[in-house]
Amino acid sequence: MTHFKLKYGKGYVEFDLPKERVLNVVEGAPYPALDDLNAALIEALDHPVGTPALKEIVKPGESVCVVVSDITRGWIHYERFLPYLLNYLNAAGIPDKDIFLLIAYGAHRLQTEAESRLEFGDEVVDRVRIEHSSGINPESKFRHLGTTSHGVPIEINELALDADRLILTGGIIYHLMAGYGAGRKAILPGISSYQAIQKNHCLCLQDEVGGGTNPEIVSGNIAHNIMHDDQMEHGEAADADFLVNVICNADGEHCKFVTGHWAKAWEQGTQLVDEIYGVEISEKADCVVATAGGYPKDINLYQGVKTQDNAVKACKPGGVVILMMELDDISEPAEFIDWFATQNLYDREVKLRGGFTVPGFISLHLGEDFQKCKHILVTKPENKEVCDRVGIEVVTSIEEALAKAEKIIGNDTFTYNVMPLASNTMPIVKK
User: What span, in angstroms and rounded, lies between the C-alpha atoms of 319 and 312?
Assistant: First the structure.
């Protein structure tokens, strides 16, 4: 037997599987963690890609807007390096009073001060002011800058546009719609209007009604991804002064800062993501056992779809996907859960085309995957009511899930692929 101990919420789930039936353990390639984050960040800020050093860009007396991700991206661990970025700006003549963070929620809910302190650290929250940009928050103000070649309005938060200098931050990982996260996503959806977010994401559907999701809108693809192309046009309109993106290794440790031009530096970072997280597997298995990698990656089903999407890529059609996610915030966002009131996928798609939302698209994508593989969710028993509405079977232990998988597959010799960090790792079947 092979023993597994996989992250689940803020704890772990342990289980054993027959060694000879485990085809692949889908883990990222090893990559060394940065020993000294302060030194590594300073080196990156002084030697960026495609721009002068950050200290040569900012000038005393200027205001600096630092766009940051929200609590759903807590794995970025801003608290570990944001103080160093502030110190660097201070040394370049920009005092804390002239710096502010702009949290890029996209269409997510606003987070609490307690969540901001958890994400950014007490030092940062106490040093600089924090502003909020959410497409669903009426207090967020956006300025119209034009329209993209795809017909999407460019509407960006005024606070970012009015600052003398704009710095984008984030963490680069695979993204099931945009190909990769971070980079231009700090602008759209990050600090864009709800209308812009909706219309951009509508590009993720096939042209014809009933065609479902666009097969080119997938993780790791930006070569023929119309959603990404449109986001790049928003990035060009914002034309941020500088970018600071982090990449974490498979152990969740910072291993690289990519800095400089908002597009060129980010594109360099996506290559390292491929190197670490594009994982070749020998073949798809009858059953996939996957976790997101713990909290906050499994904070809710909406975020958990990243895990589910990668898990399906490692599963044979008609097989079983077992997802282990604690889902502390199971009902968020409420709109996502509400979409499952429309059970028929054609009707769901028609409704989506009538008023596109990201949660609606994710619900359609998930429904399509439910038709490919049987899904079983290991989670807390109190999550069952919501999961019943979504249409995913709930169990409370991995042992129960494995027993159900055996009954569904119909034999006791079926194969497994195990994914300890399925939110990040994308399985690629070896050719």
Answer: 9
User: What is the pLDDT, as a whole number, of residue 92?
Assistant: 98
Strand partners, 257: 246
- What's the angle, vertex CA 335, arms to CA 330 and CA 340, rounded to 5? 80
In a 3-state reduction of DSSP, which class is residue 14?
strand
Return the CATH class of domain 2-28+282-429: alpha beta
Alpha-carbon distance values, 229 to 149, 168, 188, 266, 347 (Å): 10, 18, 11, 14, 28
Look up residue 270 and give its two tokens. 């996506």
Q: Which CATH class is domain 37-275?
A: alpha beta
Confidence of residue 357 (pLDDT cuts 50, 70, 90): confident
What is the β-pairing status of strands 64-69 and 165-171?
A: parallel
Q: With contact defined as beta carbons under 8 Å apart, do 385 and 337 qualify?
A: no
Q: How far apart are CA 52 and CA 33, in angstroms?
A: 26
Q: What is d(CA 71, CA 299) in angstroms, rounded to the nearest whole number?
A: 10
**Angle, CA of 248, 8 and 358, to the nearest 5°:** 70
Instruction: List pLDDT tens digits, range 269-298.
Output: 999 999 999 999 999 999 999 999 999 889
Tell me if the bond preceding 189 is cis, omega within 30° of 0. Answer: yes
- Average confidence score pLDDT of the chain: 95
Per-domain residue ranges of the chain = 2-28+282-429, 37-275
Q: Smallest Cα–Cα separation from 90: which of 52, 120, 128, 117?
A: 128
CB 6 within 8 A of CB 324: yes
